[in-house]
Design goal:
Elements: H1 2-15, H2 22-33, H3 40-49, H4 56-68, E1 72-76, E2 82-86, E3 94-98, E4 104-107, H5 110-122, E5 133-136, H6 139-143
Parallel strand pairs: 3-5
Antiparallel strand pairs: 1-2, 3-4
Helix pairs in contact: 1-2, 2-4
């Protein structure tokens, strides 16, 4: 899957007049190959572990292009908790977000999905997209207080 996403990103870069650079490709591969929701700092640390240098500015610029390509989505889980994840078709999920440490847990729940569809039907509403973010405190943060 990640190779397909990387290929799609390179194609997007070429078709839209962006340079295909090693740095852009490596940043994209980090996001495509890492499950979950990454902060810019997470991305920079993962690059460093692979001995790839990239400034925060370069990471942000590449993220902007990745978002334009619609291969990466940005989540804003509160003021301090901006995260990025690869878009994967047919893998819808919702989020539990800790307001203390910023941990994000993905979850899928069919009864919630069905309830949303029923609410839309009851209100004669055509859903084009949706997201459910639940905020609170994770187990670790609850037990440390």
């Amino acid at each position: 899957m990640s190779e397909d996403l990387t290929d799609q990103f390179i194609k997007f870069l070429r078709e839209n007049g962006y340079l295909v650079t090693r740095q852009r490709k490596r940043i994209a591969e980090i996001i495509f190959n890492t499950p979950g929701h990454l902060s810019v700092e997470d991305i920079q640390n993962l690059l460093r572990q692979k001995k790839i240098s990239a400034s925060i500015a370069s990471i942000y610029r590449t993220l902007d292009v990745l978002i334009k390509s619609e291969l990466v989505v940005q989540h804003r889980f509160g003021k301090r908790f901006k995260r990025f994840e690869a878009v994967r078709q047919d893998q819808h999920h919702d989020h539990l977000i800790c307001t203390i440490c910023g941990k994000v847990e993905e979850f899928k729940n069919e009864p919630i999905e069905e309830l949303q569809l029923q609410v839309a039907k009851d209100y004669n509403f055509d859903i084009t997209s949706h997201k459910l973010d639940i905020y609170g405190r994770c187990r670790n943060c609850r037990s440390s207080n």
